[in-house]
Amino acid sequence: MYLDALDNLTRKKKNKGEEVTEQDKEDLIKSVVSKMEQKVEELRYVNELLEKHLTEIPQGVHRVIDMAGGAGDVGLGITTQLLSEGRDINHVEIVDPQTGTDLFMHTIIDHLPFQQELEKIVHHALEHNNGYLQNADITPDAMVVAKHACGTLTDDSLDLWKDSDSKIFVAMTCCQDKACGHPSRYDIPQEEWDRLTTESGWTNLEDEIGKSSGQKKKELEEKMIKGKEAMKILDMARVDYLRRHGFQAELYMTDKFPKGDVIIARRLPKNFLIKLKEIEQLEKDDPTTFDNLRLKLDYLIKGKGSARGAKVENMLREFGDDWVLEDFIEIDRRLDPTIADAEVKEILSDLKKRAARERTRIVKEREEREEQKAEKAREKEFMDALFADSRGRIDIYARQHAEKTGVTIPYNKFNTVINALQNKINRMKGENLEQIRISLDKIMEEMGY
Known about the structure:
Pfam families: Methyltransf_32. Residues 39-178 form the Methyltransferase domain. Residues 6-53, 348-380 form a coiled coil. This is Methyltransferase domain-containing protein. The protein is α/β, with parallel strands linked by helices. Helices cover 61% and strands 8% of the residues. The chain has helices spanning 2-15, 22-52, 73-84, 101-109, 115-121, 153-162, 190-200, 206-210, 214-244, 272-285, 287-302, 305-319, 325-335, 339-386, 394-404, 414-427, 433-446; strands at residues 63-67, 91-95, 122-124, 142-147, 168-172, 247-252, 262-267. Helix 10 (272-285) crosses helix 13 and helix 11 (287-302) crosses helix 12. The protein is extended. It starts with a helix and ends with a helix.
């Protein structure tokens, strides 16, 4: 990592006609060490979050796929944790096209617990294909993870996972400024998408803020706050998108890192949204039965012992054999949204309203352009008919009329003549063309042309 950073710094200095100094190297070492320490803290944070969700990870998960994973630090970290919990992980795929990342991956493995086991099960996509996301083999028994996948890569990974049969998705999101200009997603208006993705790149201004003071520092701090808010909105949109498409999804935010938002999503039963709509309709049609169902759910979630087991079996017969306790917890939560859920809905509702306004504006502007185009066509048709003997041009008509009287319109008078003729035409629009020409001829004669 240091050598790559030094190579980049050397190129930048060379472009400026400068050389890398010893002080530059010392500063670079400090920066690289700081970044490595942050990487370790980020991995620890993701693993701590994942530990809280271990019960939600099906026992049938045997593979880990790290999308846009570089050397695979997050994939390796999560796999190590799963192995330490006794999970049967038999294949880990690090998906990234960057040359050299596969070599660095093996260096990381040398310093991890379960080294021998990891050497057997971990593979880098570069070893058997080009390492692009679309070539990732996302199987039903796979857990898909992504950490700081830049540009559209987080969203591409999310879409690939959504369209697979994999059960679990974990992503530590990244700034999306490189996604600016790409087609917007999640029903966000294009203008808003470009603004939010651009501003999300303002989250890593801490170093610059530390070197600044006064008004400049205040401006940078305000800019970083905007950047964090932009990232929050983009991540909320991702979570809402997943929930709307039948997944359980949660957003975890932290101030520990500039880009510390984590999304953990889980595939729900295929009939989850259908059941949710049925229950929501039941609340309107039959409140008593709805209340009884909520009591059942509450007892199922909070109850204990054999009675709870019987309740689970009854609910499974009613909802489906593929439902698990976490699914009932999720449907109960959806029926009683939290303040955080309400905040997400409010923010995204505002974005959708902006989207509707933008669509209305675009349609209106298109209609106005089409009307202007049609008006120009009608105007040309009218002028072609009115000045059929002068190629439809008022200036040629004026010159020809003046020539017939044996005079030439002076250059400094020409615009005055044309304006007088055009004003007469505008006032007589809709009248007989012959009458308009007679009136124009009369104006020319009155002006001596």
